[in-house]
Amino acid sequence: MKREFFTVVYNREVARQTYEMVMQGDTSDITAPGQFINIRLKDLYLRRPISISSYKDGELTIIYKIQGIGTKNMSELPSGEVLDILVSSGNGFDVSKAHGKVAVVGGGCGVAPMYGVAEALVREQGITPTVLPFA
User: Fold this and answer.
1) Which residues contact 101 (CB under 8 A, 6 or more apart)?
2) Sequence-ordered list of residues with C-beta below 8 angstroms from that of 41, at least 6 positions apart, any chain
3) Do the beta carbons of residue 116 and residue 52 sit within 8 Å?
4) 78 FRET partner, CA 20 to 30 A, in 6, 14, 84, 107?
């Protein structure tokens, strides 16, 4: 885990009470799809753990749903806001072991990191997975 500062590029509602936030910063310590970050928010004691939806050099995307005061505060963060983030928590998924037909399954909060897994399967293994989201 490494402390980094990311700048909000945009933070927009994409579905009812569900937001997509894109941030710029150092993503070099993120090594696998399925990892998560911990975001420090003003006036809240605990950091908020949020799954990484996707990442590329210098850009990080999260998708989150308002569940309480922390995510409600996150939904109100404007473009240009600088966030204190602990990056590269969790082990993530090793897509190098995938072969043949692959299904990516997730529901609720588990859907956001599945986007990054599917993206990595295509990019690194040439596998287009079957995606099965459920409610």
Assistant:
1) 130
2) 47, 48, 70, 73, 74
3) yes
4) 107
- Sketch out the chain's domains with CATH numbers: 2-89 (2.40.30.10), 95-134 (no CATH)
- Give the separation between CA 63 and CA 37, rounded to whole angstroms: 12
Sign (positive or negative) of CA dihedral 38, 52, 15, 67:
negative
Q: Which two tokens stand for residue 55?
A: 């990442």
Q: In whole numbers, what is the pLDDT of the chain averaged over residues?
A: 94
Residue-level pLDDT at 108: 80
**Sequence-distant (≥ 6) Cβ neighbours of residue 96 within 8 angstroms:** 124, 125
- Residue partners of 39: CB distance under 8 A and separation at least 6: 47, 48, 50, 74, 83, 84, 85
Q: Given a cut of 80, is residue 102 above it in pLDDT?
A: yes
Taking residues 66-90, report their average pLDDT: 96
